[in-house]
C-alpha cells in the first residue's frame, strides 16, 4: 500500500510500504536523485539537484530537452500546476517549448515569460 507524496513532511520525497511498478516508488523517505530518474545528460552542468528546491530548473530542462520517457516521469514527479507555473515564469525556456506547453496546458501565450520581449518599449 503506498502513501503517495509526503510533501508536508519531506518535500520532494516519495514513500511506500511495498514496492510498486513505477521506478519512482522504490525510494523510501530519501531525497529523489534526479539523475537516476531522468537521462543524466539533461543535468550535465549541475553537481547536486534537489528536486523540490530546484523544481523550476528540473522541469525546464526536461521540457526543453527530455524525451517522451522523461516527460512521463516528470508528470509522475510534479503536478500539472507546478509544470504550468514553470511554463509561465521561466524565461530560459526555449520559445518553441513555451508555446507548445502553453497550448497543451491551456495557458494564454501572453502569460508565458519566454515568449515576451526582453527589451523595454520606447516612448
TL;DR?
By secondary structure, the protein is mainly alpha-helical.
Question: Gap between N and C termini, in Å?
Answer: 62 Å
User: Structural class given helices, strands, pairing?
Assistant: mainly alpha
Give the proportion of residues in helices: 25-40%
Count of strand segments: 2
Uncertain spans: 1-29
Taking Cα atoms only, what radius of gyration do you get, to the nearest Å?
Answer: 16 Å
Q: What is the chain-wise order of helices and strands?
A: EEHHHHH
Domains (count): 2
Largest sheet: 2 strands, antiparallel
Strand order of the largest sheet: 1-2
Instruction: Estimate the strand proportion.
Output: 5-15%
Mean of all residue-level pLDDT scores: 78
Task: Count up the helices.
Answer: 5
Report on the architecture of this protein:
It contains five helices and two strands, in the order ββααααα. α2 crosses α4 (80-89). A two-stranded antiparallel sheet has the order 1-2. The model is unreliable at 1-29 (pLDDT under 50). 17% of the residues are buried. The longest helix is centred in the middle third of the chain and has 11 residues, at 55-65. The chain has two domains: 1-30, no CATH class; 32-123, no CATH class. With 123 residues, the protein is mainly alpha-helical. The protein has helices at 34-37, 55-65, 68-77, 80-89, 95-105; strands spanning 2-5, 14-16. β1 and β2 form a beta hairpin. The protein is globular. It starts with a strand and ends in an 18-residue tail after the last helix.
Furnish the topology, listing elements before pairings:
Blueprint: E1 2-5, E2 14-16, H1 34-37, H2 55-65, H3 68-77, H4 80-89, H5 95-105
Antiparallel strand pairs: 1-2
Helix pairs in contact: 2-4, 4-5
Amino acid at each position: 500500500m503506498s502513501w503517495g507524496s509526503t510533501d508536508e513532511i519531506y518535500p520532494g520525497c516519495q514513500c511506500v510500504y511495498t514496492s510498486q511498478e513505477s521506478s519512482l516508488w522504490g525510494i523510501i523517505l530519501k531525497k529523489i536523485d534526479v539523475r537516476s530518474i531522468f537521462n543524466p545528460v539533461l543535468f550535465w552542468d549541475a553537481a547536486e539537484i534537489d528536486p523540490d528546491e530546484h523544481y523550476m530548473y528540473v522541469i525546464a530542462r526536461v521540457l526543453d530537452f527530455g524525451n517522451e520517457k522523461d516527460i512521463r516521469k516528470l508528470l509522475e514527479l510534479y503536478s500539472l500546476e507546478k509544470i504550468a507555473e514553470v511554463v509561465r515564469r521561466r524565461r530560459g525556456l526555449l520559445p518553441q517549448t513555451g508555446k507548445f506547453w502553453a497550448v497543451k496546458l491551456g495557458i494564454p501565450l501572453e502569460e508565458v515569460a519566454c515568449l515576451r520581449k526582453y527589451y523595454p518599449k520606447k516612448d
